Amino acid sequence: MNARDDAMAEAEAFATIIPPGFVIGAATAAFQVEGGVHDGGRELSVWDEFTHQSGRILGGANADVAADHFHRVGEDVALMADLGIDSYRFSFGWPRLQPGGSGSLNREGIAFYDRLLDELLAAGISPMATLFHWDTPVELRGSWLNRDTAGRFGDYAYQVGEVFGDRVDRWVTINEPATVMLNGYALGIHAPGTTLLFDAVPAGHHQLLGHGLAVQALRAASVRGEIGVTNVHSPVSAATSTDEDEAYAALFDIVHNRMFGDATLLGRYPTIPEEFAVALRPLVEVSPEDLAIIHQPLDFYGLNYYFPTRIAAGTGSSSSPDGEAPALSALPFHLEPWPEFARTGFGWPNAPEFLGVALAELASRYGEALPPVYITEGGVSLPDTVLLDADTGVARIADSARIDYLSAHLESALSATAPGGAASAVDLRGYYVWSLLDNFEWAAGYSQRFGLVHVNFTTLDRTPKQSFGWLRRVLEARS
Ligand code: BGC
């Protein structure tokens, strides 16, 4: 057997661990792939503004063109059909569908997503649509610090539900409100770029309120699909067992994980330790009415997992997993490295076992309140390795490390949720690879490539990577 046959045999062996009916998909987000930022009546989002401010994005990059998916949607759906995925998770661009953040929807924006949905359905690919993946229209002044944005979001959700409710199988209201609050408002490395530290908490609360209003709105619009939310979970541990390290680890777990999971699934915020009650006052003083809005029955829970977090007391370096964040050094705790794990292209620990831990935490924290779970994102950024085929001279993108990453993470999730596993109470329904395409990776610009498909950001040519061939074989071979 040659190397290619070996790889295909490995894919076939791997396929046997995938349970029947388990959904395998790939994910993207509007701002990261679409480009065409001035086309079709689209207006600006906070991310358009942010990327055009100097010094914000690595290499001075912006997403004006990104992967040019807006103009290449047909080619991209053909790639998905060739890959054989069950489902595609994308996001509706808020500034494309409702350019000023209020009023009726933009017909050209509707036409774009009509085409995407129709082509997906014609190819037998089930659409999962996210309503908000960070592209807040600039007209919504104060953005998520302003409580009114939650109401605006509910209104947008109703209209989008009315137009597309017949074709979307699964709706995600908001993607990773924790990242928006922490990176966008607390640390300033994402849009809108404020460094409010704990004063950013209202931006999290208002997104949660927006989530609740959006669930109500989608139900009022009688969408036929299932409705859920996507939170990013990073299992948190204290660097040592000192009281200080333990206390700050608990604090980080609240602002990164529990605040969002507990509010959406249990209808309450976690109990705030005395010493943090002032910093987290909005969570302590929240009104029962707001919690009732946030606590909507959900058909599924979306889990994004990338890496675990280790916390120690005391100030530390200002580098965050997503970029340089000088504001971090003002905090009384810091993130510690994980020397025991290999690192991804981004420098993140490659720790598949912690995906099992994240699922086990969901089971133990939420019990009966946890609906079926989809892993709505998981994936790895790697530098390109371009190999030239000696016989044909054709370029191949070798990314066997991505194959290893995806198989190890899927295996961790499936074994944790199998009978006898630490998360056996979790009804795990699927896994979406981040990402279908190399794309605009927020503060890191184009320096981090997460795609199954390589994008040449000069020519915009797409080249399926080795991992694409592996996944295609897994999908063909599963029962
Ligand atoms: C986000 C994606 C992002 C990925 C990798 C997730 O937090 O939802 O938009 O590209 O992580 O950084």
Annotate the secondary structure layout.
Layout (H helix, E strand, L loop, with lengths): L2 H13 L7 E5 L2 H4 L12 H6 L21 H11 L3 E5 L2 H4 L9 H16 L3 E7 L15 H17 L5 E6 L1 H10 L14 H20 L5 E7 L3 E3 L4 H24 L14 H4 L3 H7 L5 E5 L4 E5 L5 E2 L2 E2 L8 E3 L17 H14 L6 E6 L7 E3 L6 E3 L2 H18 L10 E7 L18 E3 L6 E3 L1 H12 L2
Parallel strand pairs: 1-2, 1-15, 2-3, 3-4, 4-5, 5-7, 6-8, 7-12, 12-15
Antiparallel strand pairs: 8-11, 9-10, 13-14, 16-17
Bound molecules: beta-D-glucopyranose.
What does this 3D model show about the protein?
- This protein has 479 residues and is of the alpha/beta class.
- It has a single domain, classed as Glycosidases (TIM Barrel).
- The chain contains 15 helices and 17 strands.
- It has helices at 3-15, 30-33, 46-51, 73-83, 94-97, 107-122, 148-164, 177-186, 201-220, 243-266, 281-284, 288-294, 353-366, 400-417, 466-477, and strands at residues 23-27, 87-91, 126-132, 170-175, 226-232, 236-238, 300-304, 309-313, 319-320, 323-324, 333-335, 373-378, 386-388, 395-397, 428-434, 453-455, 462-464.
- The longest helix has 24 residues, at 243-266.
- It starts with a helix and ends with a helix.
- Residues 29, 32, 175-176, 179, 232, 304, 377, 434, 441 line the site of beta-D-glucopyranose (BGC).
- Beta-D-glucopyranose (BGC) binds next to loops.
- Any guess at the CATH architecture? Alpha-Beta Barrel
Helix content: 25-40%
Distance between the first and last residues' Cα: 24 Å
Number of strands: 17
Q: Give the CATH topology.
A: TIM Barrel
CATH superfamily: Glycosidases
Largest sheet: 8 strands, parallel, barrel
The number of domains:
1
| Shape field | globular
Give the mean pLDDT.
Answer: 97
CATH class: Alpha Beta
Number of H/I helices: 15
Structural class: alpha/beta
- Hetero compounds: beta-D-glucopyranose
The share of residues in extended strands comes to: 15-25%
- Runs in which pLDDT lies below 50 for 5 or more consecutive residues are none
Biggest sheet: strands side by side, in what order?
1-2-3-4-5-7-12-15
Rg calc:
21 Å
